[in-house]
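Q: Convert this sequence to structure tokens.
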Amino acid sequence: MFNVDFIELIKQNVPAKLCKTKLLAWIKALISPILQLHSDFTSYRAECDYFVNHTFQVIYLEKILNDIYDPDDRGIYIEDTPPIDVFAIYNSSEGIETAALYNSTESSAEALILYNESEVLQPQDFIIMIPSNVYGFLTTQQFTEMRALVNKFKFAGIRFNIEEY
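A:
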């Protein structure tokens, strides 16, 4: 439906008596902007078809990133941020039983590390891992485009980071 051969269409609609080389060249010159617009439209349509056929799923996002930034080795992958075990401390008046805290000299129990809330909150929900041979050649513009592309496909409120491996 979108594949139109304009040159052939001209040859079919110009009368045979008038179908000379100079006239065809003149008509081709007149329709050259239309040919350029048609070429731009078909390339844009192909790009839109590509992105419409991909969803927010991790496997599709990995495929898109590899198609654009690492088509040869396809080494870009996405991994989830590892969870942090959270241990809460309660007041005795709250009536919630938790593990007891001891000084290091009082107990031989395994050490328990306490974190601030800012240390427990993770800055990202997933990490895009890029091989060092690709990461080193990406420009600031390409990183910006990659972030925009991932933002286009991910859910709102999901945070991510781009790292080298």
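The chain has two domains: 1-53, 55-165.
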